[in-house]
Amino acid sequence: MDYELFGTSQPNKKRLRAEDDPFSEWNGGDDETYGSHVPLFNFNDTLMNLSLTESGNIKRTIDEEFEMESSSLSSSFFPEPQTKAEEWFGQPPPTQPSHNTMTPMTPMIPMTPMTSMTPMISMTPMTPMTPMTPMTPGTPMTPGTPMTPIAPQNQAQNQNQNHQNETTVLTPIAPLQFQPKKAEVSSFLSLTHQQFVAQKEEFEKLKWFQQDLLSKPITNSGVLPQLETWQNTLLQQLQSMYLQLEGLVINKCLDAGEIYRLGILKNEILLEIKHLEVYVIELCCFVRPETTKSVPASLFISKQPFPKAVRQNKEIENVLTVRLLTASQGQSIWPCGPVTASVVTPGAPPSTKKALSVLNNTKPLSANIADFNSLKFPVGSRKRAIQLQFKLEVQVGTTKSVIESNLSQPFIVQTNENQYTESEGILLLLEIFGDANETTWAKFTNTLQKHYLAATKQDKQAPKRPLCNQDFVYIYNVKFSPNTIPSPNTIINRTQVNNFWDWFGPSLYKIRYQRHLCSMWNNGLICGFIGKSETERVLENASPGAFIVRFSEQRAGQLAIAYIPLNASLDLLSEATQQTGRIRHYLMQPDDVHAAKKTLPDFLRRSQNLSLLVQVIDDSNRGKVYQQCPKVRFLFIFFPSSFSSLDLSFFLFSFIYLYSTH
Questions:
Q1: What is the pLDDT of residue 222?
Q2: Taking the model in full, what pTM does it have?
Q3: Which of 601, 557, 617, 560 is nearest to 583 (CA)?
């Protein structure tokens, strides 16, 4: 479709969308088209027609509702629901009493039996009613407009109005294929962890045996080869365990929790491997001192926030921890100073410009641990991946030596946030492919999940909204191969991932940096990665005013909104029309949302034709579940403390409309 209608390529054509309400009735079918603007309501006229008493009552009612919403939202950003149908919504609005229902009076004084009551005012016999205007015989009545049957109309109207006030679960007619989570990976991780615990216990026995052996003269020369064999066997078992976990990343599509558990387990195994290697060096120094030049000590990065893009002149967000590993005779190794961090640029040619450096790069050891929590980089890395290495000067006997750590995971120092998309893309491809040109679909999804959770600022152990299987199937169909479901061993290449990131990267950038978008995304208020046809299937069962916010498939990083206008119910003549003709699509323009002055909640709040926001929830048993609820319950938390007259007009109308229909 042609997007020129939105751009500046047609300067003589006037934009038909209203400034504050692009969602009034228009004839649009795709993401790219919209038509004539027909306002549905006039808030100012509605408010001007209210008397002072009525408007005062409405204001008091709104103040009470605002206090109720504020108190319910102050405890947590989005309260935990009791059921899936009530997720993120809280309690429904209170039902106002009907004026047609009489409340029975409680008598102030109980009636005494067998005592007749004396009426306060004697009752006069009823006088027959006199008609106000008697009809003249023989004069026929003037025919009027045929009346629509009252009961069916009121029933349909009440049903529609109730949808505007209630939380409703929407069931897509043909949902994407959902594959329930299997327990085989979780069981394998549990088994591997048990084996690792057993290996750690074996390593502890080796430590005590080696310490006792080397602390006194050796009388049995055959015990040294046995100890060396013990070390090599244990080292091979740990390395084999580590390689099995690496193979799991390549051959199995893991969920976010499994990726977190696997990452922790890999790091613990690698720490034990490095520590065991120090014991191997110590034994070699004891058996063959003339040929072994290594120091039986090493530095190991046990915790780090990389890989990620960091800002120039800004401290890193998480702590980086370095540990000193020593062998059984560690008391003979003395640190001569603090641990120092330096920047390493693999494969970079010598540069005559500013050298890459790191500030706050020294930390003393405390219990053989150094925590770096204020590292800062004064110069950008020019979109090159760099790494950190740590060094420590130690004294062994009378000799001083410098020991080094392993290299950190790669990262990029960006000079401004506009470099984020390209920097994250470089790091993603580097972790997925390394020097290769092809990889498996499982390696791609597992790596993308880690970068996605870091970009959306979620807890990696228990994220609110990780990428699920349906998201990955959608991504594969849109950017890799349509109408197919990939297997974990499906081969993809670097060019395909580059094309994918050109579309996915700007969306991730918008979620991370645009105001309120990250909170809305993590709580499912933006459906995001869902196709146009799937959106229409979800909205088939939705009420007028329901809308879905998603990312456009053609325009990278741009949001699109599929919705059913509030006045679409007036045109519903048959079930076929309801199924096909009432859904509209709108592609959001750059001026619809402008930095912090005009956010996405502001835009949705001012749109009169949008009243029911559709939220997506990831259910482990059913996949994605969609449900609609009045948007004011979601968007209220994002509103500023001060409102303009237009804001107040909209909220007055919203509360009048929602609560008067109860």
A1: 86
A2: 0.72
A3: 560
